[in-house]
Amino acid sequence: MKKFLLLIxxxxxxxxxAAVVLDFAYTTxxxxxxxxxxxxxxxxxxARDYDVVILGxxxxxxxxxxxxxxxxxxxxFNYGMSGGHLYEASLLLKLMIxxxxxxxxxxxxxxxxxxxxxxxxxxxxxYLPYLHRSETVRKHFENEKDFNELYYIPFYRYLKFETRIxxxxxxxxxxxxKSKLLEEGGYYSLGTTKGKMxxxxxxxxxxxxxxxxxxxxxxxxxxxxxxIAIMTPMCEDVTGMNYFDKVHKAYPEIYNYENAxxxxxxxxxxxxxxxxxARKFTSIIxxxxxxxxx
Length: 294
Prior knowledge:
Elements: H1 2-30, H2 38-43, E1 49-55, H3 58-61, H4 66-71, E2 76-78, H5 86-98, E3 102-109, H6 121-124, H7 135-141, H8 147-152, H9 156-160, H10 162-165, H11 167-174, E4 199-200, H12 211-222, E5 226-231, E6 238-239, H13 243-250, E7 255-256, E8 267-269, E9 272-273, H14 275-289
Parallel strand pairs: 1-2, 1-3, 3-5, 4-6, 5-7
Antiparallel strand pairs: 8-9
Helix pairs in contact: 5-12
Protein backbone atom coordinates (compact mmCIF):
# COMPACT_ATOMS: atom_id res chain seq x y z
CA MET A 1 0.00 0.00 0.00
CA LYS A 2 2.84 2.34 0.88
CA LYS A 3 4.52 1.74 -2.51
CA PHE A 4 1.25 2.40 -4.28
CA LEU A 5 0.77 5.70 -2.45
CA LEU A 6 4.34 6.73 -3.25
CA LEU A 7 3.72 5.91 -6.91
CA ILE A 8 0.57 8.05 -6.91
CA UNK A 9 2.50 10.87 -5.24
CA UNK A 10 5.30 10.68 -7.83
CA UNK A 11 2.82 10.67 -10.71
CA UNK A 12 1.04 13.66 -9.21
CA UNK A 13 4.29 15.58 -8.77
CA UNK A 14 5.50 14.79 -12.29
CA UNK A 15 2.13 15.82 -13.72
CA UNK A 16 2.16 19.08 -11.76
CA UNK A 17 5.72 19.91 -12.84
CA ALA A 18 4.91 19.07 -16.46
CA ALA A 19 1.83 21.31 -16.32
CA VAL A 20 3.88 24.24 -14.99
CA VAL A 21 6.59 23.76 -17.62
CA LEU A 22 4.11 23.42 -20.48
CA ASP A 23 2.14 26.43 -19.26
CA PHE A 24 5.29 28.53 -19.22
CA ALA A 25 6.38 27.29 -22.65
CA TYR A 26 3.02 27.90 -24.36
CA THR A 27 2.64 31.31 -22.75
CA THR A 28 6.16 32.32 -23.79
CA UNK A 29 5.27 31.50 -27.39
CA UNK A 30 2.11 33.59 -27.35
CA UNK A 31 3.62 36.66 -25.71
CA UNK A 32 6.07 36.89 -28.61
CA UNK A 33 3.50 36.42 -31.39
CA UNK A 34 2.42 39.34 -33.56
CA UNK A 35 0.95 37.91 -36.74
CA UNK A 36 -1.49 35.08 -36.01
CA UNK A 37 -4.59 37.08 -35.13
CA UNK A 38 -5.98 40.43 -34.09
CA UNK A 39 -5.58 39.83 -30.35
CA UNK A 40 -1.86 39.06 -30.38
CA UNK A 41 -1.44 41.81 -33.01
CA UNK A 42 -2.67 44.26 -30.38
CA UNK A 43 -1.24 42.64 -27.25
CA UNK A 44 2.33 42.63 -28.57
CA UNK A 45 2.27 46.16 -29.95
CA UNK A 46 2.83 49.71 -28.77
CA ALA A 47 1.51 53.17 -29.56
CA ARG A 48 -0.14 52.75 -32.96
CA ASP A 49 -1.95 55.73 -34.48
CA TYR A 50 -5.34 55.35 -36.16
CA ASP A 51 -7.90 57.70 -37.62
CA VAL A 52 -10.45 54.89 -37.48
CA VAL A 53 -10.62 51.66 -35.47
CA ILE A 54 -13.49 49.29 -36.25
CA LEU A 55 -14.79 46.93 -33.56
CA GLY A 56 -17.51 44.29 -33.45
CA UNK A 57 -18.39 40.81 -34.63
CA UNK A 58 -18.39 39.30 -38.11
CA UNK A 59 -20.89 42.01 -39.03
CA UNK A 60 -18.01 44.44 -38.57
CA UNK A 61 -15.30 42.15 -39.91
CA UNK A 62 -17.19 41.52 -43.18
CA UNK A 63 -18.89 44.91 -43.60
CA UNK A 64 -16.25 47.64 -43.29
CA UNK A 65 -13.69 47.76 -46.11
CA UNK A 66 -10.44 49.16 -44.73
CA UNK A 67 -9.09 49.93 -48.19
CA UNK A 68 -11.85 52.48 -48.85
CA UNK A 69 -11.06 54.39 -45.65
CA UNK A 70 -7.36 54.35 -46.52
CA UNK A 71 -8.05 55.72 -50.01
CA UNK A 72 -9.66 58.71 -48.34
CA UNK A 73 -6.57 59.32 -46.24
CA UNK A 74 -7.94 57.72 -43.08
CA UNK A 75 -5.51 55.35 -41.38
CA UNK A 76 -7.80 52.48 -40.45
CA PHE A 77 -7.84 48.91 -39.19
CA ASN A 78 -10.79 46.57 -38.93
CA TYR A 79 -10.55 44.75 -35.61
CA GLY A 80 -13.93 43.05 -35.98
CA MET A 81 -13.78 39.40 -34.94
CA SER A 82 -16.06 36.78 -36.47
CA GLY A 83 -17.91 34.97 -33.72
CA GLY A 84 -17.03 37.62 -31.17
CA HIS A 85 -19.32 39.51 -28.82
CA LEU A 86 -19.02 42.95 -27.25
CA TYR A 87 -17.24 41.21 -24.34
CA GLU A 88 -14.20 40.62 -26.56
CA ALA A 89 -14.45 43.96 -28.35
CA SER A 90 -14.37 45.84 -25.05
CA LEU A 91 -11.26 43.98 -23.89
CA LEU A 92 -9.50 44.63 -27.19
CA LEU A 93 -10.12 48.37 -26.85
CA LYS A 94 -8.84 48.25 -23.25
CA LEU A 95 -5.60 46.67 -24.50
CA MET A 96 -5.23 49.32 -27.20
CA ILE A 97 -5.58 52.07 -24.62
CA UNK A 98 -3.17 50.28 -22.28
CA UNK A 99 -0.66 50.25 -25.14
CA UNK A 100 -1.05 53.99 -25.70
CA UNK A 101 -2.80 53.85 -29.05
CA UNK A 102 -3.76 57.24 -30.46
CA UNK A 103 -7.27 56.66 -31.83
CA UNK A 104 -9.42 59.43 -33.27
CA UNK A 105 -12.57 57.45 -34.06
CA UNK A 106 -14.03 54.11 -33.02
CA UNK A 107 -16.75 52.60 -35.20
CA UNK A 108 -18.60 49.94 -33.23
CA UNK A 109 -20.96 47.50 -34.92
CA UNK A 110 -23.71 47.37 -32.31
CA UNK A 111 -26.87 45.57 -33.30
CA UNK A 112 -27.44 41.82 -32.90
CA UNK A 113 -24.57 41.63 -30.40
CA UNK A 114 -26.50 43.89 -27.99
CA UNK A 115 -28.73 40.92 -27.16
CA UNK A 116 -26.13 39.37 -24.82
CA UNK A 117 -23.35 40.43 -22.48
CA UNK A 118 -21.51 37.14 -22.09
CA UNK A 119 -18.27 36.01 -23.65
CA UNK A 120 -17.94 34.10 -26.90
CA UNK A 121 -15.73 31.30 -25.56
CA UNK A 122 -14.10 30.50 -28.89
CA UNK A 123 -12.88 34.08 -29.24
CA UNK A 124 -12.27 34.96 -25.60
CA UNK A 125 -10.03 31.89 -25.34
CA UNK A 126 -7.53 33.75 -27.52
CA TYR A 127 -6.95 36.15 -24.62
CA LEU A 128 -6.20 33.42 -22.09
CA PRO A 129 -2.47 33.01 -22.84
CA TYR A 130 -2.07 36.53 -21.44
CA LEU A 131 -4.06 35.92 -18.26
CA HIS A 132 -0.95 36.10 -16.05
CA ARG A 133 0.83 38.69 -18.18
CA SER A 134 -1.78 41.45 -18.21
CA GLU A 135 -3.70 43.00 -15.35
CA THR A 136 -6.22 44.24 -17.89
CA VAL A 137 -6.94 40.74 -19.16
CA ARG A 138 -7.07 39.31 -15.64
CA LYS A 139 -9.59 41.90 -14.43
CA HIS A 140 -11.78 41.39 -17.48
CA PHE A 141 -12.06 37.67 -16.77
CA GLU A 142 -12.10 37.67 -12.96
CA ASN A 143 -15.89 37.53 -12.64
CA GLU A 144 -16.27 34.51 -14.91
CA LYS A 145 -17.41 31.36 -13.11
CA ASP A 146 -14.38 29.35 -14.22
CA PHE A 147 -11.83 32.08 -13.50
CA ASN A 148 -10.15 30.30 -10.57
CA GLU A 149 -9.53 27.15 -12.58
CA LEU A 150 -8.24 29.10 -15.56
CA TYR A 151 -6.01 31.33 -13.46
CA TYR A 152 -4.65 29.03 -10.77
CA ILE A 153 -4.39 25.60 -12.40
CA PRO A 154 -1.29 25.45 -14.64
CA PHE A 155 -1.97 24.54 -18.26
CA TYR A 156 -5.69 24.07 -17.62
CA ARG A 157 -6.72 26.84 -20.00
CA TYR A 158 -4.65 25.35 -22.81
CA LEU A 159 -6.28 21.96 -22.29
CA LYS A 160 -9.81 23.29 -21.99
CA PHE A 161 -9.49 25.35 -25.17
CA GLU A 162 -7.16 23.00 -27.01
CA THR A 163 -8.74 23.70 -30.39
CA ARG A 164 -8.16 27.44 -29.98
CA ILE A 165 -4.87 27.80 -28.11
CA UNK A 166 -3.60 24.23 -27.87
CA UNK A 167 -0.78 22.40 -29.61
CA UNK A 168 -1.76 23.11 -33.23
CA UNK A 169 -2.17 26.84 -32.76
CA UNK A 170 0.96 27.04 -30.61
CA UNK A 171 2.95 25.22 -33.28
CA UNK A 172 1.73 27.58 -36.01
CA UNK A 173 2.67 30.48 -33.77
CA UNK A 174 6.16 29.08 -33.21
CA UNK A 175 6.81 28.76 -36.95
CA UNK A 176 5.30 32.24 -37.47
CA UNK A 177 2.69 31.02 -39.91
CA LYS A 178 0.65 34.06 -40.87
CA SER A 179 -3.14 33.92 -41.00
CA LYS A 180 -5.45 35.82 -43.34
CA LEU A 181 -7.01 37.67 -40.40
CA LEU A 182 -4.54 40.56 -40.66
CA GLU A 183 -4.65 40.92 -44.43
CA GLU A 184 -6.67 43.68 -46.14
CA GLY A 185 -6.35 45.85 -43.03
CA GLY A 186 -8.39 43.36 -41.04
CA TYR A 187 -11.35 43.37 -43.44
CA TYR A 188 -12.47 39.86 -44.39
CA SER A 189 -14.23 39.78 -47.72
CA LEU A 190 -16.92 37.20 -48.35
CA GLY A 191 -16.42 37.64 -52.08
CA THR A 192 -19.41 36.54 -54.13
CA THR A 193 -20.34 33.45 -52.10
CA LYS A 194 -24.00 32.73 -51.45
CA GLY A 195 -25.51 31.15 -48.35
CA LYS A 196 -28.82 31.18 -46.51
CA MET A 197 -30.86 34.21 -47.59
CA UNK A 198 -33.55 34.04 -44.91
CA UNK A 199 -33.38 34.82 -41.21
CA UNK A 200 -35.72 35.06 -38.25
CA UNK A 201 -34.78 37.34 -35.37
CA UNK A 202 -38.28 37.64 -33.91
CA UNK A 203 -37.23 36.24 -30.53
CA UNK A 204 -34.13 38.44 -30.27
CA UNK A 205 -34.21 41.39 -27.87
CA UNK A 206 -31.47 43.87 -27.02
CA UNK A 207 -30.52 44.12 -23.37
CA UNK A 208 -31.75 47.34 -21.81
CA UNK A 209 -28.17 48.06 -20.74
CA UNK A 210 -25.42 45.99 -22.27
CA UNK A 211 -22.46 46.11 -19.88
CA UNK A 212 -19.76 45.86 -22.53
CA UNK A 213 -21.39 48.32 -24.91
CA UNK A 214 -21.44 50.80 -22.03
CA UNK A 215 -17.79 50.00 -21.26
CA UNK A 216 -16.74 50.75 -24.84
CA UNK A 217 -18.72 53.99 -24.88
CA UNK A 218 -17.19 55.07 -21.53
CA UNK A 219 -13.66 54.18 -22.64
CA UNK A 220 -14.07 56.34 -25.72
CA UNK A 221 -15.38 59.26 -23.70
CA UNK A 222 -12.57 59.02 -21.13
CA UNK A 223 -9.89 58.85 -23.81
CA UNK A 224 -11.33 61.55 -26.11
CA UNK A 225 -12.17 59.10 -28.89
CA UNK A 226 -15.09 59.94 -31.15
CA UNK A 227 -17.56 57.08 -30.68
CA ILE A 228 -19.69 56.00 -33.64
CA ALA A 229 -22.06 53.09 -32.97
CA ILE A 230 -23.78 51.67 -36.04
CA MET A 231 -26.40 49.04 -36.84
CA THR A 232 -25.33 47.32 -40.04
CA PRO A 233 -27.52 45.96 -42.89
CA MET A 234 -29.45 42.74 -43.24
CA CYS A 235 -30.98 41.25 -46.39
CA GLU A 236 -34.55 41.64 -47.63
CA ASP A 237 -35.91 38.37 -46.26
CA VAL A 238 -35.66 38.87 -42.51
CA THR A 239 -38.52 38.23 -40.10
CA GLY A 240 -38.46 40.36 -36.95
CA MET A 241 -36.82 43.51 -38.26
CA ASN A 242 -38.52 45.48 -35.47
CA TYR A 243 -35.51 44.31 -33.43
CA PHE A 244 -33.69 47.35 -34.79
CA ASP A 245 -36.50 49.62 -33.56
CA LYS A 246 -36.03 48.07 -30.12
CA VAL A 247 -32.31 48.87 -30.30
CA HIS A 248 -33.07 52.46 -31.30
CA LYS A 249 -35.44 52.82 -28.36
CA ALA A 250 -32.93 51.43 -25.85
CA TYR A 251 -29.87 53.12 -27.41
CA PRO A 252 -30.99 56.20 -29.36
CA GLU A 253 -27.38 57.23 -30.01
CA ILE A 254 -26.78 54.20 -32.27
CA TYR A 255 -27.12 55.05 -35.94
CA ASN A 256 -29.51 52.74 -37.75
CA TYR A 257 -28.10 51.63 -41.12
CA GLU A 258 -29.89 48.27 -41.24
CA ASN A 259 -31.68 49.32 -44.42
CA ALA A 260 -28.82 51.19 -46.09
CA UNK A 261 -28.21 48.11 -48.28
CA UNK A 262 -31.07 45.62 -48.65
CA UNK A 263 -31.02 43.91 -52.03
CA UNK A 264 -30.13 40.24 -51.83
CA UNK A 265 -27.55 40.62 -54.58
CA UNK A 266 -25.37 42.48 -52.07
CA UNK A 267 -25.44 39.70 -49.48
CA UNK A 268 -23.50 36.50 -48.95
CA UNK A 269 -26.00 35.39 -46.31
CA UNK A 270 -28.89 37.23 -44.74
CA UNK A 271 -26.75 38.74 -42.00
CA UNK A 272 -23.52 39.28 -43.93
CA UNK A 273 -22.85 41.34 -47.03
CA UNK A 274 -20.68 40.15 -49.86
CA UNK A 275 -17.77 42.26 -51.05
CA UNK A 276 -19.93 44.41 -53.34
CA UNK A 277 -22.38 45.09 -50.52
CA ALA A 278 -19.60 45.86 -48.03
CA ARG A 279 -18.06 48.36 -50.45
CA LYS A 280 -21.39 50.04 -51.06
CA PHE A 281 -22.07 50.23 -47.32
CA THR A 282 -18.58 51.44 -46.41
CA SER A 283 -18.83 54.22 -48.98
CA ILE A 284 -22.06 55.39 -47.33
CA ILE A 285 -20.46 55.42 -43.88
CA UNK A 286 -17.42 57.37 -45.08
CA UNK A 287 -19.69 59.89 -46.82
CA UNK A 288 -21.88 60.37 -43.75
CA UNK A 289 -19.29 60.53 -40.97
CA UNK A 290 -15.92 61.66 -42.27
CA UNK A 291 -14.60 64.84 -43.74
CA UNK A 292 -11.83 63.07 -45.57
CA UNK A 293 -8.29 64.31 -45.99
CA UNK A 294 -8.30 63.94 -49.74
